[in-house]
Amino acid sequence: MESYALLFGSTLSAGTVLALAALGLLINEKAGIINLGAEGMMLCAAIAGFAAVVHSGNTWVGFGAGMLAGALLAGLFGVLVIWLNTNQQATGLALTLFGAGFSAFAGLNYVQAKLPELPKYAIPGLSDIPVLGPALFRQHPLVYIVVLLAIAMIWFLYRTRAGLVLRAVGESPESAHALGYPVRRIRLAAVMFGGAMCGLAGAFISVVYTPLWVEGMVAGRGWIALALTTFATWRPARVLLGAYLFGGVTMLQFHLQASGVQLASQLLSMLPYLATIVVLVLISRNPAWIRANMPASLGKPFYPGS
Fold first, then answer.
1. C-alpha triplet 246, 247, 250: angle, nearest 5°
2. Residue 172 domain flag
């Protein structure tokens, strides 16, 4: 039972990384912008957050540094695609390539660096419950915050005027512009929020999830987060569920290895990416369903003067 409790607890932690990034990207896409630079932003944020904790000794400073790095890179991306009308897909891929190279260069002096000992978190009373206590109630606060964030995002998108305006910009920016809404600024704010969330996810990886810096340590999670938004049909609750599903698949490989399953480690490492491909193939079989849920202007440039 203890091994299953450990698997469940690690699933929550792994799913938190994906949920943070995917929820941010969902806001991007609700505004009509697709950012394929998630992987690069997460890598830059991972080294920014790690370096900040090394020098400050405070994990929350590291989270702030990661969010700032992600928001700045997303802001640069936003200026290029929103004001200069560069191709969103090509610009996002360029951001990923830049992030991979820059983080590797910036992290050269931090490969052997060690973080100060991280505080231990536990909810008094609940954390002592057999089996469930260690799995559910000894997690980092961000594991619980991301659930609250998903709930807050549901309320924002479907119960507030600002959320309605954001969705209107994603559906028909021309109509929103005709009504007097600043479409470009709304899109930039959405993109920077998405970047900040990707940055928080990257910092969480290097500071809490695997507290060290290694080149390329995000290891494709940015791409999985991008796939999650489609898998979840752009709904926050489904993003959260999908993040834990993919987090569980990610951690299953380690559980199987610890259980003595005789499979090559490379095959087990393929599981989360294989699951991503399978899910996308299944979803793609019903393009009408995707079109019914996808923001109508997703990936399309907006020209205010036209």
1. 85
2. yes
Tell me the pTM: 0.92
DSSP codes, 74-113: HHHHHIIIIIS---HHHHHHHHHHHHHHHHHHHTGGGTT-
**CATH number for position 129:** 1.10.3470
Q: How many distinct structural domains can be found in the chain?
A: 1
Token pair in block for residue 32? 């009509």
Q: To the nearest 10°, report the CA torsion of 301, 302, 305, 306.
A: 70
Mind listing the pLDDT tens digit for each residue in 12-52? 889 999 999 999 999 999 999 999 999 999 999 999 999 99
* 207: containing domain: 2-293
Tens digit of pLDDT for each residue in 44-94? 999 999 999 999 999 999 999 999 999 999 999 999 999 999 999 999 999
115 in a domain, yes or no?
yes
| CA distance linking residue 291 with residue 238, whole number of Å | 17
- The answer to whether position 305 is within a domain reads no
In a domain, 43, yes or no: yes
Locus of tokens 């390329």: 216
Whole-angstrom distance, CA of residue 95 vs CA of residue 217: 17
